[in-house]
Amino acid sequence: MSQIRISAPLTDYAIGGLHSGQSLLINGIIYAARDTAHKRIVEALHEGGELPFNLAGALVYYVGPTPPQPGRPIGSAGPTTAGRMDAYAPLLIEHGLKGMLGKGERNQAVKDACVKHKAVYLATLGGCGALLSLCIKKAELIAYPELGPEGVWRFEVEDFPAVVVNDIYGGDAYIDGRKQYGQSRD
User: Which end of the chain is more exposed for a tag (fewer CB within 10 A), N or C?
Assistant: First the structure.
């Protein structure tokens, strides 16, 4: 299967061409944030505070990177379980977030928000953090430095691998994959 190259920040046009199950290579700017950073971003939205980055078109990677080895911008950068951000994702999507990147399934509220507001959820390989970090060419901690690796990071990535799990049409690669597996066993 060929891989589709996309650029981040994401556009409605680019997202419109993505379907669950497609393999991607991401280039451009993505933001890294986990649970506590998401909580703070949502609090800032509720309070009318300043956000650490522009949500419009943004792609957020659910990761808490490790410190870098000499000569590298970042250490291991494997995905965390996306479901941990499910409580925050619908509001962020409503405010312009266009993509999320992690591992594991999403709840129905996140899937519905992806369809309603045109956003996608992408998955990457768990357990491959050292390999994935090679796709991160620059890394900068941009918000909540007191959280260390769980603060908000700005990554410049090249050919970062992912698979479309939830698309804007209601597709779900996990559900489709289970159906295909069941059919192949009959």
Answer: C
Contacts of 147 (CB under 8 A, 6+ apart): 36, 37
Tell me if residue 56 falls in helix, strand or coil. coil
Q: How wide is the angle at C-alpha 168 spanned by C-alphas 29 and 80, nearest 5°?
A: 50
Check: CB of residue 106 under 8 Å from CB of residue 121.
Answer: yes
**pLDDT given for residue 18 in this prediction:** 97
Distance (Å, whole) CA 164 – CA 90: 18
Domains held by the chain: number: 1
pLDDT in tens, 39-95: 999 999 999 999 999 999 999 999 988 988 899 999 999 999 999 999 999 999 999
Phi/psi for 36 (5° steps) reads -65, -40
Q: Residue 64 maps to which CATH number?
A: 3.20.130.10
H/E run at residue 60: strand 59-61
Expressed as residue numbers, the domain containing 57 is 3-184
Contact 42, 92 (CB under 8 A): yes
Q: What is the pLDDT of residues 132-163, one digit of tens each?
A: 999 999 999 999 999 988 999 999 999 999 99
